[in-house]
Amino acid sequence: MLDVNFIRENPDAVKEGVEKKKIDKKLVDKFLQLDTTWRGKVKAIDELKAEQNALSKELAKEQKEDLISRAQLLKQRISELEAECVAAETKRKELLNRLPNIPFTDVPVGKDETENKVLREVGERPKFDFTPKDYLSLGEELGIINVKKASEVSGSRFGYLVGDMALLELAIVRLAFDLLTKEGFTPILPPVMIKPDVYAGMGRLAADQKEERYYFPKDELYLIGSAEHTMGPYHLNETFEEQNLPRRYVGFSTCFRREAGSYGKDTKGIFRVHQFDKVEMYSFVHPEQSGEEHLFLLSLQEKLMQALGIPYRVVEICTGDMGWTDARQFDIEAWFPSEERYRETHSCSNTTDFQSRGINVKYKTKEGKKEFVHTLNATAFSQRPLLSLLENYQTNEGTIKIPEVIQKFVGKKEIKK
Questions:
Q1: Helix, strand, coil: what percent of the chain each, to 5?
Q2: 127 half-sphere exposure, CB direction, 13 A CA radius
Q3: What is the pLDDT of residues 42-70, one digit of tens each?
Q4: Active-site residues: which are they?
Q5: Number of alpha carbons in the 13 Å side-chain half-sphere of residue 198
Q6: What is the pLDDT of residues 255-264, one digit of tens each?
Q7: Which of 73, 193, 395, 396 has a CA-to-CA distance to 284 between 20 and 30 Å?
Q8: CATH architecture of the domain with range 113-415
């Protein structure tokens, strides 16, 4: 959530920021009106309680009927105001949760993905002397991807990774963990279920995000959409010592998404699915270091992609396309020869103190003051880069060459029938 004091002191900046993210700026005014009402009730309660305390001292000396009557009226009025205060606070919090994180002022302003800014292209695109096949055709012909059986078992947007494809996924997971642990990241395997209040604190139930989530009412638990969703709350309600920052984790989990807003998109294949595996990086840092940390995480993503030899480009996401919790977002898009275009495979986000405020993660300054840390998250690998790998490393014989860096994990140099 946003800092309430910042909203009070900088309403115009907040309005401008949320409007860039396609949120009605009138919500800011509504929030401030409710905030004023709530603060007024809190002040009134405090004043009445002060009067009640003074009256209690008088009653301790002498039980006068008029004093007793006043005490009863005060108690009733305080009770009424407290109920009103709770109602106002609930509405106020609901509105606060409808305000996204504010983008940095130098983030490209745009309405959607068509206005994202390409920063650089890296790697040489393969040149084939044949028409390259798409990853699904390759996977089905080699018997390593099976969406037909998955459809029979689970429905649409599911797939089986079989044989060498399963080994390829485990190989890139191992590649990511090996590289990132050497960079000081602590490995973690987080839960894939999360409580509603904690999920809301992470900013992942706001706006239309709730439609993306799988929820089990009987258990009051959500399935996570990314490892980061339970990696952040690993330090729920904790305070770091300043000298112990940054704290970095690399986590692996299965992820679950309804893909509610993607009707008709990528219905064929396994690019956009309800269940997938992902390796995620997550950092807790000093606020002054979050910009530097963001570029560091991006550099690690590029290092991993370069290790696999997959052509890619780096894109800075515009305000109208960036995530709800993000103040700045970069994406990496891998080259897909069959489509002759780049497609998003990684995201890298600086969420500033938006998530840490919601899950109450702070650090103690040298002066002993407690402040909210900044948090960042970045994809190391999901299954999507594997799909690009199949296409970029295909041969005229229908085989797939395996990048040298992961051959030791797969146990072979080439995938054949």
A1: 45, 20, 35
A2: 1
A3: 999 998 888 878 877 776 667 666 777 77
A4: 257, 272, 344, 347, 384
A5: 21
A6: 999 987 666 7
A7: 193
A8: 2-Layer Sandwich (3.30)
Answer for the pair 282, 249: CB distance below 8 angstroms, yes or no: yes
pLDDT tens by residue, 176-223: 999 999 999 999 999 999 999 999 999 999 888 999 999 999 999 999
Q: Which run of H or of E encompasses 385?
A: helix 384-392
Separation CA 382–CA 346 (nearest Å): 8
**pLDDT tens, position by position, 388-413:** 999 999 999 999 999 999 999 999 99
Specify the DSSP element, H or E, that contains 32: helix 26-61
DSSP-derived secondary structure letter, 353: T
**What is the distance between the alpha carbons of residues 364 and 355, in angstroms, rounded to a whole number?**
18
**How many residues make up the chain in this entry?**
417
Tokens 């990314």 correspond to what residue? 226
CA 396 to chain centre: 40
Place of tokens 């986590």: 251
pLDDT of 140-164, one tens digit each? 999 999 999 999 999 999 999 999 9
**Residue 262 DSSP symbol:** -
DSSP letters, 292-335, are HHHHHHHHHHHHHHHHHT--EEEEEPPTTTS-TT-SEEEEEEEE
Three-state secondary-structure class, residue 98: coil
Domain ranges of the chain: 4-96, 113-415
Closest of 322, 330, 325 to residue 21, by C-alpha:
322
One-letter identity of residue 154: S
The contacts of residue 24 (CB under 8 Å, 6+ apart) are: 18
Question: Which amino acid, one-letter code, is at 417?
Answer: K
Fold topology of 4-96 = Helix Hairpins (1.10.287)
pLDDT of residue 50: 86
